[in-house]
Amino acid sequence: MSEQIFNTSSNNKRIAKNTILLYIRMLVTMIISLYTSRVVLNTLGVEDYGIYNVVAGVVVLFTFINNAMATGTQRHISYELGKKDGRISEIFSACLKIHVVLGALVVLLGELVGLWFLNTQLNIPTERMFAANVIYQIALVNCFIGIIKTPYDASVIAYERMSFYAYMSIFDAVSKLLMAYILLVVTFDKLITYAAFILFVVIVGFVIQLFYAHKKLPGLKIVAILDKSLYKYLLSFSGWTLFGSVAGMLETQGLNMIVNIFFGVVLNAAVGIAGQVRAVINQFVSGFQQALNPQLVMSESSGDRQRQFSLICRSAKFSFFIMFVLSLPIMSNLYQFLYLWLGQVPNYTVSICILGIVVQLFECISSPLYTTIFAIGKIKTYQVIVSLFRILSVISALTICYLDIEPYMIYLMPCIVAALLMGYRVWFIHKEIDMSIISFVKNVIMPVMAVCTITILPLIVYKEFAPYSESIVRLIIESICIAVLTGMTIFTIGFTSSERNVIIQQVCKYIQK
User: Fold this and answer.
1) How many angstroms separate the CA atoms of 452 and 369, rounded?
2) Nearest-5° angle of CA 331, CA 333, CA 337?
């Protein structure tokens, strides 16, 4: 496998193949997930749907340590694969043992602190407290499985076995669709049944993944690790990652808790729907990014700076454009899309959705940057700075709540923080491995700004003067036109001449086949 890693042509073909597989997975799961969400929302109702989101959010509060370990595990396995003499089994075994202990710690913390928080601090209707407690316990078990599964997820991605990853995602989506239909005929408490079905799907998926990893991934074995220095190395790296995980937890679940305390579960439902919209659109980008991330880490471990810089710029720019060409038509007709999807649109959902999509657009550019930073491994100062920025979002949210400003404004600060962090990451990589800031601005930021300006300004003028219509035909035609015009702008303004030539050549080859 080492020879393949250092073969650029082989790497590029593997990236292309994995990207296609992940996009097939994305299209299937997105279609199924959109319909599943509609059925579940209408079956549970806005109140129960909001309760599930906020209760599950309490459990997520205790997984910030796992988020730190997950990032480190992905980095370490990919890094070892990029070396000719990598210690893959040792790294995997040590990470797995750490995650088992971590899972037990999270469950203990959840039972002691989380249960108290659920029953004394959250704004949940009294008649639904029993159901909330039951789904909380189910969510804890779900969380434990998710934690011990992390090294297996990291290994599948590091080995670039995207076909298996795609199949498992489709299995998960189809299972949840079946679950949604079963909910329609269930006479028992639907909220509890929903949580139990999700747990069942997670358990089955974990068992399948466990057998696959040990049978199909070469060198992935559980071995006895007595070297304390290895555990110390892994925990030290993850210790600094913990700062970012804590801050990320505060910015997402912390905001969710603040919204619940000040505005109740109905607004939590709006936040949950906005999160799903953001996640669905991001799926179009994540396939491309996941195919590139292992190569970014391997290029760092092999010291191939030229390829590393090329991957950073292309991943950042292409990820943004993929997200932008999909999100602009959706944002311009968001209420109509939400109404067709859900049948009912909770207050503030549109505003929160748009702000969430803007955050994700900044994250598209940042994704290869923080992947590279973690590959470099010097993350102490980086994580402290990132944590301070993210905590600003929570402080701003509390200020907005006490000043009685419109609640959707809570989600404006994360947009500003995402933009600032993007700039900081570019500077950090420049400082550590001498990546040219001017080159990054020229190859990524300027094309992005040019495309955004040329497409958004005319669209604002059009929306200002065009009469409002609820026609589905007009919605479809208008969305397609916006997407096509945006795509044409990206092709002519956003891409370089060499990039355009490569795209044309690939299209011609495909047509000839």
Assistant:
1) 21
2) 100
Per-residue tokens: 511: 């047509």
Q: Determine contact, residues 397/257, Cβ cutoff 8 Å.
A: no
Separation CA 2–CA 219 (nearest Å) = 13
pLDDT at 3: 41
The CA-atom distances, in angstroms, between 91 and each of 80, 95, 133, 248 are: 8, 6, 37, 26
At residue 496's C-alpha, the angle toward residues 495 and 500, to 5°, is: 70
Task: List pLDDT tens digits, range 193-207.
Answer: 888 888 898 899 999
Rounded CA-CA distance 429/415 in Å is 22
| Alpha carbons 373 and 185: distance in angstroms, whole number | 50
- For residue 410, what pLDDT is reported? 83
State how far the alpha carbon of 187 is from the alpha carbons of 125, 140, 183, 194, in Å: 21, 25, 8, 12
258 contacts 250 by C-beta, under 8 angstroms: no
Alpha-carbon gap, residue 476 to 230, rounded angstroms: 56
- pTM (2 d.p.): 0.71
Q: Annotate 16-55 with three-state secondary structure.
A: HHHHHHHHHHHHHHHHHHHHHHHHHHHHHHHHHHHHHHHH
Report the distance separating Cα 166 and Cα 464, nearest Å.
42
CB 443 within 8 A of CB 313: yes
The residue written with tokens 């999807």 in the block is 341
Structure tokens at 136: 């909380």
What integer pLDDT is reported at residue 14 of this predicted model? 63
pLDDT digits (tens, 9 = 90+) for 221-279: 787 777 788 888 787 777 777 777 777 777 777 787 888 888 777 777 888 888 877 77
Spatial distance between the Cα atoms of 79 and 91, rounded to a whole number of angstroms: 10
Q: Where are the alpha helices (DSSP H) in 186-264?
A: 190-216, 228-249, 255-263
**Could you tell me which residues come within 8 angstroms of residue 288 by beta carbon, excluding any fewer than 6 positions away?**
19, 22, 23, 315, 318, 319, 322
pLDDT of residue 486: 93
**424 vs 502, higher pLDDT:** 424
Domain boundaries, the chain: 8-512
Cα atoms in the Cβ-side hemisphere of radius 13 Å centred on 260: 29
Query: What is the pLDDT, as a whole number, of residue 451?
Result: 95
Question: Token pair for residue 28?
Answer: 């299937």
Per-residue HEC secondary structure of 278-342 comes to HHHHHHHHHHHHHHHHHHHHHHHHHCCHHHHHHHHHHHHHHHHHHHHHHHHHHHHCHHHHHHHHH
340 closest CA partner among 46, 34, 48, 29: 34
CB contact at 8 A, 68 and 242 = yes
User: Residue 10: what residue type?
Assistant: S
- Name residues whose C-beta falls within 8 Å of residue 349's C-beta, 6 or more positions apart in sequence: 270, 273, 274, 338
Six token digits for residue 34: 């959109």
